[in-house]
Structures are given as structure tokens and as C-alpha cells.
Design brief:
Protein name: Ferredoxin
Number of domains: 1
Keywords: 3Fe-4S, Electron transport, Iron, Iron-sulfur, Metal-binding, Transport
Oligomer: single chain
GO molecular function: 3 iron, 4 sulfur cluster binding; electron transfer activity; iron ion binding
CATH topology: Alpha-Beta Plaits
CATH class: Alpha Beta
CATH architecture: 2-Layer Sandwich
Number of strands: 4
Function: Ferredoxins are iron-sulfur proteins that transfer electrons in a wide variety of metabolic reactions.
Strand content: 15-25%
Strand order of the largest sheet: 1-4
Number of helices: 2
Structural class: alpha+beta
Distance between the termini: 11 Å
Shape: globular
Cofactor: [3Fe-4S] cluster
């Protein structure tokens, strides 16, 4: 499995929280309710639900790409 890089476009995120609900080891919500990648988890942390969380985002604000 190749290394991954995960990011959330904060200009696109609407704060639905689907990422944090689906893959809480990778994603969290900031004080305003918008999605963030947990510190140190920019590689996806090997979470098997990472790509599902990206698909669950209603505005496709999450990018998962090979590093």
C-alpha cells in the first residue's frame, strides 16, 4: 500500500461532520464545526474508512491522494 496524503479544502467544507463520523481517527471538527485532519494524521493513519469518509463528504472537500 502506498503512502497517502489527506487534506480538507476549508473553502469548500460546509461542516456536515460526515468525515469525523466516518473516520474519527483521521478527522475532527474545529471550534466552528468545520472538518479538519487531525494533527499527525495527514497520511490517513492507515484508517480503512478513510476513502469512505472522503466519499461521504457532501461537497467533496476531502482530497486523498498518493504521496
Amino acid at each position: 500500500m502506498s503512502a497517502l496524503r489527506v487534506s480538507i479544502d476549508s473553502d469548500v467544507c460546509i461542516g456536515s461532520g460526515q468525515c469525523a463520523l466516518t473516520a474519527p481517527s483521521v478527522f475532527d471538527q474545529d471550534d466552528d464545526g468545520f472538518g479538519v485532519v487531525r494533527s499527525g494524521r495527514e497520511d490517513g493513519a492507515g484508517d480503512p474508512l478513510l476513502k469512505e469518509a472522503a466519499r461521504a463528504c457532501p461537497v467533496q472537500a476531502i482530497t486523498v491522494e498518493e504521496a
